[in-house]
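An instance as discussed:

___
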Amino acid sequence: MQLDELRAQIDQIDEELLRLFEKRMQIATQVAAYKKARGLPVLDRKREIEKLEPLAKKVSPELGSYAQDLYETLFALSRRYQEKQGVEESRCADADS
């Protein structure tokens, strides 16, 4: 397979990833509204930690740590987006992040 064909495949995957990312962030907006209405903080580190190991197990072993890195980034972006929605960031709680 030629490099341009491989890159075209990656471009198609990127389109799908962006569509799913936008959908995820739309749901994060709903999570932010829920948290804001109940005075809950953005960060729920316990939930994030609980999510990382199972996520890593859903990919091949050599990709597990990379999957965790990906989701750490997604969690951070989600928190930042929720903070932009006006949800407190400084307190800790057991709410979904």
